[in-house]
Specification:
The protein is an alpha+beta fold. Helices cover 34% and strands 38% of the residues. It has a five-stranded antiparallel beta sheet. A three-stranded antiparallel beta sheet has the order 1-8-6.
Length: 243
């Protein structure tokens, strides 16, 4: 008999606890999760150019010598333009054989016909006013391989912070709009998570031809920084005046 009473009491307590949990769940505030985006643009004050020299010769040493002479002239031009050593970096030194085509009728083994030597340099140019003239000079010095031109900011921190503020403001605007549309009260912020703060796709110019004798026309445009945040708000009950 005692065991039956004990089981009945336990079931009653369990039922009471379940009702209390359900009540707490009903009383718990809802949540609103919003993603905010921010983007800030500014005129660039720096350019990053990637270029190089390529030479071919039947002899490997001649190909390397010709390429080295071109690269020496390129580096000298960058130095004369006032670029600091920290803004110039060489990479991609390569010497590759060029093989003859295989002729199945002759059934001959392929042979090396020429050697191709190449190297490239990446340089940060902080004086955009002289960029066009510098590019023309590099071409005349022997730069015959160009990978591209990108514009950027030397000190992007201010723009990044502005993009973050804009992202939070965007999230707040959306949250207020959603809460008003749903006739709810927007409560305190529960969490803020940064999804990322990075450069937006930068303007890029592929360099293929240059006007001889004149500085290459360069249009820098603007560069942008963007940020994204995820903000979670608590939601209160319907606002006063709700039907």
């Amino acid at each position: 008999m005692k065991s039956i009473l004990g089981i009945g009491l336990a079931l009653a307590l369990a039922g009471t606890a379940g009702m209390a949990a359900a009540q707490q769940a009903d009383d718990a505030p809802g949540r609103l999760v919003v993603i905010g985006e921010g983007r800030v643009s500014a005129p660039p004050d720096m350019a990053v150019i990637t270029l190089g020299a390529v030479s071919e010769s039947p002899r490997a040493e001649e190909a390397m010598q010709q390429m080295s002479a071109r690269m020496e002239a390129i580096l000298a031009r960058l130095d004369a333009a006032g670029l600091a050593a920290r803004d110039v970096q060489t990479s991609g030194l390569s010497l590759q054989p060029r093989w003859s085509d295989y002729d199945p009728k002759r059934d001959e083994e392929r042979s090396i016909t020429r050697f191709v030597a190449s190297s490239q340099v990446t340089a940060r140019v902080r004086d955009l006013a002289g960029l066009g003239e510098l590019l023309d000079g590099l071409v005349s010095d022997g730069a015959n391989e160009f990978r591209g031109l990108e514009f950027d900011l030397q000190e992007p921190g201010t723009q990044v912070d502005a993009a973050r503020r804009a992202a939070v403001a965007d999230a707040l605007h959306k949250a207020e709009l959603y809460a008003e549309a749903a006739n709810l009260t927007l409560g305190p912020i529960l969490s803020i998570t940064e999804a990322g703060a990075a450069p937006a796709p930068m303007m890029r110019a592929e360099m293929a031809a240059f006007a001889a004798g004149n500085g290459m026309p360069v249009a820098a445009g603007e560069v942008a920084r963007q940020a994204s945040v995820t903000v979670t708000w608590a939601l209160g009950p319907a606002s006063d005046g709700a039907d």
